[in-house]
Amino acid sequence: MTKIKFQDVLRDAVQSLFGTNPSAQEIIDSYPTAHLIGTDTIQTGGGTFFDIFAKKGRDEWAEIEKLVSHFKTLGVRQSALIRGDFLFGYKPQPYDVIRALVFEYATMGMNVLQNFHGLNDARCLAGVAEAVAEAQAAGYDIIAQGTICIEDNPNVTVARCLTFADELVALGHSGFYLKSASGRLSPYFVYELVSALYRRFPDQDVTIHAHSTYGEAPACYMAATLAAIEQNKTITMDVQHPALAGSTAQPSMNKMVDLIRNYPDERIASESPQLDIDAIKASMFSLYGLRFRYREFESRYNADLVKSMNAARTPGGASATLKSIPGLVDTLGRLLGKGGSHADWDHIQIAIYQMQNQILDDLGQPTQVTPYAANTTGQAALSLWHQLEGRDKYHTLYPGIVDYLAGRHGHVPRSASRILVAKALKQLGLAAPENYVMAKDRPDGLPSAKEKLIKAGLAQPTMRQIISAAMLIDTGPFKTIDHIVACDKGQNVPSPPPEQPFYSLPPQPVLRADGNGYNRDVRDAVNIIGGYSKLQEIAERVLHTKQLVDRRYIFPAGEEDLEQKWLNANIERLKLILDDIPVKLAAANFSDGQKMVMLDRNNPNSIHLSIKDAVDHKGAGLYDFMIYIMSDRI
Prior knowledge:
With 634 residues, the protein is an alpha/beta fold. It folds into three domains: 4-260, Alpha-Beta Barrel (TIM Barrel); 303-428, Cyclin A, domain 1 (Orthogonal Bundle), CATH 1.10.472; 502-633, no CATH class. It contains 28 helices and ten strands. Strand 7, helix 9 and strand 8 form a beta-alpha-beta unit. Helix 5 crosses helix 6. The two termini are 47 Å apart.
């Protein structure tokens, strides 16, 4: 067995790229070969795979069980990311709720709960660790993996991480999960941390998780690998299928295999995981299709935006929370606009993240991961609003920041502004910060949740319904009890899938009046070249090429040659796809006149305008960039 293993973090791709909008069945249908690829585990649960399922009108338990049972039937070892006492929500829960949820997941077949708290406060993880120990004693195959949240942050040092690791082991965790939601990491820090962890805890395995938002993840993965191999230990990397990789998700499993096999140290190069390339290819078409269908939820590439996000250590996708603040986008657009025009969304985000960078010190540099990332970005948006209207930037505090500064979310860094802490306490009517209440010291939550359901008309609510009633929070039009009752009666209405552009709809060729062939439009042409899945592949390759040209990837020492290799491979593949378009149209009996229309970039019914729409959805101006790099190929 090789010393380098992969975990397919499917859950995080669906969350980071699609905002957890696809249904469980869509996920399963789009990835039919996941179990054949050769990854060690697949992350199928956790994060927003509960709260957002419910808020999209789906029966959250039915969705979760469909996913978990599917992969259990296929013999796959599965993991879920769990937020300590916060479970899969945004408020800490009492032990009876934690235990009930852990047992439900263990019964379904979940094997690993990656237990984390954003500021590495062990008090917030004790409940899940104890509940897992009870489940193990009951005979379930489940462990709690101790998570250490890491990033380029003054609060995150090797010494502090080692102290926290001691606490995780004392609580009964098995192995360490190094999690960087922002992807802002130093390879040198990762190397030192992994080396130190294996020296102090030789019997504990290490998994590393980092997002690709800033291109630092691959180099950090290789730094972790070097540290592990030097001590003859294993390392697990969190990766994605290549059709779901990059952007705000994790590195591609294909790219990581390339980096491992190309590494100048043979001890590492010889330890590459053996993946089934045919199984990877077999899901490319369907996964590209899923990515296209939910493309409106994915962050668009903008070099200036990425620069401002990088400075603020912003996790990709965090800006989605901003649109839930009533009136914020319209107000900031008006205040940031010039000459009466309204600033676009990219410019609004850039201004927010520039403010976020300014306020991080005052907030004590909280690690940018749930819930701290959303709260910090929310405060930055409010602070920008106040500043643009001439008020103090802390005129009001974002609700989540108030709870954080008051100690309700666990440990508060000592460097947090005393003035802001006092303001938060005053807002809550408190004389001093609260000591975090551990799960077993909280009043039971199940009895009151059950009572609410009975009052709503459910005479004998199930344990799952009771857990949902305890965990879910009313927000806007979403009402927890109404949702649970609707699901029980089969009256819940899931959000409809996004509307698709005309060119991606099924073709409907019409027989010509003279009986000589068919009148065919762009839908037919797109279908013939491979459908919208092929358009998505073109878009992804153009974006990857632009990021390489912009030097957005950090390569390990000795592997810089891969930058040119990846660039050349993308360009060659794009040339092949584009050169093949007229060939495929001719083979499908498009007339010369029909081909002329389809290949005319200025014709509104042209296939190239469809390509332009798909490519520019990845980032403004990317289609023009593609024309430039492809010269006369288009």
